[in-house]
Each structure stands twice: as C-alpha cells, then as structure tokens.
Give the backbone structure.
Amino acid sequence: MSCSLKEKILELDARIPRYTSYPTAPHFTTAKNSGFYTDWLEALPTGTDISLYLHIPFCHQLCWYCGCHTKITRRYDPVEAYIQLLLQEIDTLSAHIGKDKIVRHIHFGGGSPGILSPRDFACLMEQIRETFTIDKKAEIAIELDPRNVTEARVAAYAKAGVNRVSLGVQDFASDTLAAINRPQPFYLSYEAVTLLRSYGISGVNLDLMYGLPFQTVESIKDTVAKAVLLKPDRIAFFGYAHVPWVKKHMRLIEDSTLPDKDLRYDLFQAGAAAFEKAGYRSIGIDHFARENDSLFKTVGTSHIHRNFQGYTTDPCSTLIGLGLSAISKLPQGYSQNSPDMSAYQKAISNQTPPAAKYRAITPEDRLRGDVIERLMCHFCVDLPALCHAHGVNNNHFKEEIMALDAYQKLGFINIDEGVITVKPEAKLMARAVCAAFDTYLNIADTAPRHARAI
C-alpha cells in the first residue's frame, strides 16, 4: 500500500533549524572582546540602510511555552534600571555608527516590550531619534501582550510613530491557555485591537501557535474564526517548539496534553486552510497576510526576506541588535550580546559593546544563506543563477542536488536544470530541503539543538 504525502512528510520529520539566519545561532563562537564588532560598525559605508532591534527581556508572568530570553518580575525597578543600560548602549554604539546611516525599520521584541511604562518607551524613542537618522516611512513595530495594553501606553506608541503591532495571542481556547499558564480571555485581544486602531495604529499582526496542549482541529478552527473577527493584517502561525532540555520551564507542560506529530500536522493544515478561506494569502511556511498588507504584495517578488523576527519586507542587510542577548547582522557577520545581565551591565559600564558571541560570514556562507532564504521565502531557487551571481561553478551544488533526488521521488520537490521548487502541498518540508545546503548541520547528532519541522 502506497504512503500518503502526509505519511511521507511525518516519516522524514527531523530536528531542523528555523533558518532565521545562516549560519544559525548554535554555531556562533565566544568572542574574546568586542573589538571585532566596533570594527564592523565603523566599516559601514555612509548612507547605509539599517534596522534596529531592541530586546526587552522582562515579563510579569512566565508562559510555559516560551522559548524567548526573558526574566520574570513583579516589580518595575529592574525594568527601569535596564532601560538606563539600554540608553547607555545606544549612546556607546553611536560613536561607532554615526548619524549618516538611515534607519528603515525599528522592532521592539521580548520578553514583553509592552511592560515598559509610557514614559520609558518615549524616552527610548527620543534617544533613538537623537542618535540615528530615521526615514520618514520607517516601520516602527512592537510586540505586545494583550494583557499589558493600556490607553496610556497606546497613546505613547502612537505619539512615537509606532505603525505596526504584533499581539501575542497564541490561542483563544481557555483550556489551552490555562495549560500554558497564560490566562487571556478573547475580549482583551478585541479591546486591544480596537484601542490600537482608534489611535491610528493600523498595522496589526496576531501571533498564534499550533501544537499547544489540548488543541484539536475543531479548537484551531474556532481560534482562527475569532482571529479573523479582529481583521488582523498579518498572522504568524508558528509551531510550538517543545524543547524542555533547553527551557526547563517547559517541563511544567504535561507531555500527555501535547498533540502528537500526526495531530500537529492536521492542526496546521486546518488552520492554514481556514485562513486562506478567509481571504489571507499564505506567505512562506507559517505567515498569512491580507491584501492590504505589504507581505501580501511581496509574493512573487524579491522584496520578502527572513530574519530573526520571521518573514519581513525589511530590505536592510544591516541589523543592529540592542539589549540583552540581541543579535546583530552586519555585512561581515553576526554578533550576539551577552545573555547574562551582570556581564551586559559590566560592558555597558565600561562603555564597550556587550558583544559576547560572533560568527564571521564566509563567501560560501553567503551563497548558502541566499539559497536557504530563497527556499524559505519563495519555495524556489535557481541554483545556476545564484552560482553565477556569487562567482562559483554551476556544478557547485552537485552533491546537494543528488541528495535531494530522493525528495523529488517522494513528491516533495521538483528539480529542473538546477531550479529547485518545493511543491505547495509539501511546504512543511522546506526546512528539510534547506538542511541539504547547511554544511554545519548534523541531523544525526544525538544532542538535540532544534525542534522538529512539523
């Protein structure tokens, strides 16, 4: 009896990176000092377009599914003290960057950036505007927990120029939310969206997850129906990565409540079908967008990219990460700030960048990174054209193409004269196809580093 496409996909499911960078973060190495980072910053040409990412590593309550770097605090004092460090980091970097660079995109992530007081958020934005030249059309985005949204905060966001908000909803089912320690009734999300739009913040994203405790196909359909009522411009529908060996608090989620991989597959397919039926276009492996959204308009163009925040229209090749554990990407490579608060504080006090890890990008890394991004964003890559653009022989990926022949026979992809196309019905295998080009990945490694693809 022949296997169905679903059975073939599940059989080959493996622990594979999400490919928000290449090389991926596990392959960054410890930096002896931050001199490499200041050299990279000072080498940026005049007029370089840059993006800023500011990490706010604090939450009022721990969500048991969380894979982010965050700290739990009931008091605001640690947050206030951290903001002072962040302001000093911005000031320290200004000497190495210069105001001749153009900021096209600003993103506040966490943790819960919505934990910031209106005053502190305004102070951060004021410092950014004094330090950098911000394009008038720059996208300024912030991730928010619906439980932290207040009118005073929204007013501060609007005044500071925020024009996109990502609401961390995850699910609308009460039993699922209780099982992940995130009580959050639907009306909070509804009121948050209404308030944001009343202040002119029209770009609203929702972050949802599949693979959480007690989810069923019917509950996912109900969550999608509620999400559609809010008319978000963009939806990220992430698969929950259960990695209790990395995040010990995930052990608080009972394994017996989690859907198996067969159900996870059905959850994603049911959710994706419901979004598309509601008029949303599928973007990449896990995003959906309405026709008025910029991501919707990138389909079939070269204007869609993938970075640490997921799929984006941000065209900047330079990303400056600010704050605890934040990652920067520059033409020369990646740099990651220390995730340790004492080490971060010490570096800032010494007026040096808190860079703790790095990875220089080789020409080979750049080529393979381009291959992977095209597969993740467009499900198609023209290898001969990319090889020509990077100045290598057309047969450069001969071994990878031979290895992928098995995927072609299984019906996942099509290979025609070096052009690889992932079939729409097999897009969940895109990460596995990318893995064939990842020279750093060892799928047989017994020490798990990544979550499964499905």
Q: What stands out?
A: The first helix runs from residue 5 to 11. Residues 118 and 152 are 6 Å apart (CA to CA). Residues 22-322 form a domain with the TIM Barrel fold (CATH 3.20.20.70). The mean pLDDT is 94.
